[in-house]
Fold each of these.
Amino acid sequence: MPADKKEPEIKMEQQIIGFSDEIDKIWKALNTLETGRKTNIAIISEPYAGKTTLINEIERLSIKKITKISLTKIVKNKEELSALDNSEPIVLIDDCQYLYMRKIGGFDVLEYFLDRVVDPDKIFITTWNIFSWNYLNEIYQLDHYFPVVIKVPKFSQDMIKQLIMSRYQPDEVKFIEDVEARNKPLIHFYMKNVKIGPFTIDMPIPEINYKNFEGLYRKKEIVAPEDVVFKKTYNVSFGNPGTAVVIWNRSLEATTIKSSKIEEPIFNIDIDYSESFILSIILSMKTVSREDLKGIAGSREDIDKILYRLMTQGLITQDKDTYSITSEALYSIVAYLRKSRQVI
């Protein structure tokens, strides 16, 4: 192979869990740089799904020719992207949802960035929050700038098990036969406060003991406690690896875990339009500062009151002056905001 046709120096060995197909697609796209058929890449995912892990792996596998830029907050001016001026032929940029603010005049940096990614001598591999990507793609047709769009897949039950257990030594975690769960009736009711209009009443809510239900037709099947635990972890996390780890950590007692401790998080979302809009911004950004949220909301909104309401319902978490979506509330929030058409 002629020296000027050498493949990019990306090793094909893989040490992370999952993403083998996605790394293969990126590898094929990188090959186009040397042949003159440049193909930019967008890696998109919901929060906590692993897009940063994927792009970090691309960086780890590389030996040279790569410039890596990790955005951690909203970029306010073009000078903050000065690293693009002298970048290598392959440019990795993580969390591109920080290239805009959803307000009048808040898209100048994004437009400047899109003008730069058409450079014929470079390939840009970028990651985006999927909700920001969907919103911006409607306005700017991002897929014209990034012809290869890779959606980070959900993890399977086995992959979640592999991810979690990779942090422990063999036999370090004890899986306990959950007698309490098996002894529960097939269906039982518990009382829950439910808001109906201006009233809050106690309403009986049915709960199905799936373990006993399965036992009705799988009497001869012996399921190991370990398999029951990871099946429930997979189901309540919807295959999101970040959420699965949070649920696991919350359910683990020292080095012991029971399936009955892994409960599906339930969020009764009761918010108005302004609160929904701010929640959609936080969902689309991953992490946002109070000052940026205040700038997006405008002076007419009391951002502190809105953030307080979202926190008291367990929908967001605060770390100093920044706010993020509560991992366990992710799918309840997405379902609510899609129903109200705040996200696509």
Amino acid sequence: MNQTPDITPTTTALLVAPAAVLMFGVFVLPFLFLVVLSFWSQVPGSLSLDTSFTLTNYVRIFSDSYYLGGLWTTLWLSGFVTLICLLLALPLARWIVLHAGRAKGLLIGISILPLICGALLPTLGLVNLLSPLGFINGALKSMGLIQTSLPLLGNITGVSIGLVQAFLPLMVLPLINTVERIPHDYEKAAMSLGASPFVVWRRVLLPLMLPGIVAGSLLVFCAALTAFVTPQILGQGKVVTFASLAYQQAAMVLDWPFASALGIVMLLFLALAGLVGALISRRLARAS
């Protein structure tokens, strides 16, 4: 009988070391430098850095109405996209689990296509659909419903459509996992007692789906909060988000300390969202 050789701590350390070194070199070290850089400042009129400790960059972010406006737009847009994704994903996930049958795997594969393709290709496809001469405006004009093209690019509407299309899979997949674990008998029992479909959803299904709703909402909110390609292309420079502000400061203004401070603020909001999600998940776990 073959015996499995013992794995010593030294062997484990040697196996983990390459990944640990890689993570430290490509993530931890740049992140630490980003934090330090955010407390430096740019010497006026040059590209030199003043390495003296200062809070000037953070004071500028939270005292300038332009950057506060970008932060507020990013936050409420992320919340709005999360809400729309939730409303679309709830019936879709339930339908896939209960009624898709053999097509379930195919539908799940199609639903995650936006994640596999990356942000650029689907966004460029949306430009063709939403442009003044695109498919949507052309179809509405041909049916006589509109006379002039609807403005679907360069505004919040276009950016929201793009973000929902990009991040809907992040909401659908956790919900599918949650719905699969809900016994279908619960719904039948509630309906046999006279509950309407609305009451079944509100009193039975939604409470049982809460873990998936929390996980999906957290994923979509964080992804929308840091999205850059989709708001940049569909917003056409007219929708100011926090990610686009950081890009402008880093790539155009070349004010790296201020761009680092913008990035740190965005990371703090990500951490705050993660903390809220963890607290809600812990409370749900205790209640179950």
